[in-house]
Design a protein that fits this description.
418 residues, 7-stranded mixed β-sheet, 14 helices
Amino acid sequence: MRQQLTGLVNRLLWISFLAAGFYILFAGGQKFLHGSPEELLKEESGSIQRALSREATRFLYPVFFYAGEGEQEEAALFSRYVDWVLKMHPLTKLSYAAEEGTSQSTVTWEMLISGGSDDENELDETGEEYDLASMAEEENALVSAYPEPEQPTETGESAAASAGQIYSLEELSDFDYLLGSFYTVESNTMVTEADLNAEKLLARDMSIDKDVDGPQILIYHTHSQEGFVDSVPGDNSTTIVGVGTYLAELLEEKGYRVLHVTSVYDLIDGELDRSEAYSRAAEEISSILKEYPSIQAVIDLHRDGVDEGTRLVTEINGKTMARFMFFNGLSRTKNGNIDYLYNPYIEDNLALTLQLKLQCEQYYPGLSRNIYLKSLRYNLHLSDKALLIEAGAQTNTLEEVMNTMEPLADVLDRVFGS
């Protein structure tokens, strides 16, 4: 009897499966008969997009997701909620901005979704080193925090340059406001409220003792071969090295003793090779710091690499200037600290760039780009006052970048001399 009952149940299940299969085929056929392939593809892609949106919302904001799910009569309201949640997510907002050319540039968007470029300190997800030889020209951060005009204009950039802004501690203590207003964060990098505690960072003493005998500021160039649109091949005075020479002169005029190191770390046997540039630079700069304990600040001066159509320019006091960017490496990804890239001075480094950025906003608004935060270290462990500065890009002229050194030297003095 039991075997007969089991057989009957099995037959009923098979009949149900067959009936369901015929229904699916029939319904699908009806859909094909009553619509073109293009219409069907559009309808199905819309369904897939809605499903993916719901799953993305479920992943990003699970608590709110379950709170809005379940009742059929709330479906329309919940769909609007899903759209709102996704639009509020930073990457979604950046995608709209990239398409419309508004609050963030396309360069920033592409940088964030790609996870940034890599250098010799980085390993991929399998623990293998990246193929850096093919990525040499992309090693710098391709990022800009503002839309860049093709040419400076008197009514735009010049007007902005005369209207500096002083921010209150209350404003800067709002983590979301501080992060959104002054920083661009690589997608693989984690930054917390504890990292950007404005009160602590602004209270940090970043001054330099000018009475100390010997050099007090060291300037060097991990990538000494970085040039500009009108650089002369073989003439270092027309590259970032020449820019460093001018910055050193300006700082010396302000009373600092400056050591400008012009060693080359990114050429091997006459060929461009940045695969170990940071390591080679760290070895020599560490040795120099031991030789000259009077050095209190270390500046690694670079120029950025951007799309050929991007112009990082502004106009101040009638001079066209290349915009620049302060850069911080946090030695940490979203997966945690990078132990082999330990840096005891992360908080000091962050304090220095924030103080400098605020001076820029007060005296030279529009000149400095957002501070860029990345997961690696970039030799910022060499000093509590270590800086990596990206001055202009390969699309700037040498004159534009030289002009920028004047306000840069001024804001450095305002912080170092405080």
